[in-house]
Amino acid sequence: MSTLPAPLQKIADDLAAGRARLIDALSGLDDAQTMKSPGADNWNAAQIVDHLLLAEGFTNDITKMLAGSAPATGFPADLAEFDPLPEARSMEAPPPIRPRQELPAAELIAALEAMGVHTQGSFEMLANVDPRAFSMEHPLFGSLDLGQWWAIHPMHYDMHIAQAQGALGS
C-alpha cells in the first residue's frame, strides 16, 4: 500500500472507517437479522449493504474508465481538498444502484472487504493524476470530478449505517 496525497488519504481513511463500522455491526448477526424487513418501503441491512457496494463499485468503474489509461501526470501538489459538493437534486437511489440481492452477513462482510481492496486500487490510480481533470455527470449532484465522486462515499456510508442500525433495531 502506497502513501496517498492528503485529500485522497482523508477520503480513504473515512471510507475505511465507515466500512469497518459496518463490518463490525454485521459481525454478530445471523442471516435472518440482516434480512429482516424494517417495514414497507424500507431497506433491510442486507439491502443497504448491497446498495453501498453497488454505489462504490460504480465509482470504481468510472475511475478506471476515466483515469485508468491517462498518463501519469502526478497529483497536484497544491490540491489540499476537493471542491465542495453541490446541493443534491434528490436523495432517491438511482435505479442502477438500488439493492439487487440480500446476502448472508458473512458474504456481505467478505464483499465489503473485497471492495476495500478494489477501492484502494482506485485511490492509488488517482494518486498519479489530477482527479479534477476527469468529470462525469452524477445522477444526484450533477457534474462532479473524480475527487468529488469519491468524497460522497464516506458520507454515504455514514447515512446508511444509521439507516442499517435503525433496520436492525439498534
Verbal overview:
56% of the residues lie in helices and 5% in strands. The protein has 170 residues and is mostly helical. The protein has helices spanning 6-27, 31-35, 45-67, 105-126, 146-168; strands spanning 135-138, 142-145. Strands 1-2 form a two-stranded antiparallel ribbon. The chain is globular. The longest helix is centred in the N-terminal third of the chain and has 23 residues, at 45-67.
Q: Which strand-content bin applies to the residues?
A: under 5%
Q: Which residues sit in consecutive blocks of at least 5 with pLDDT less than 50?
A: none
With strands numbered from the N-terminus, the spatial order across the biggest sheet is: 1-2
The description of the largest β-sheet is: 2 strands, antiparallel
Number of strands: 2
Helix amount? 55-70%
How would you sum up the global shape? globular
Mean pLDDT: 93
Distance between the termini: 35 Å
- Rg over CA atoms, rounded to whole Å, is 16 Å
**Count of alpha and pi helical runs:** 5
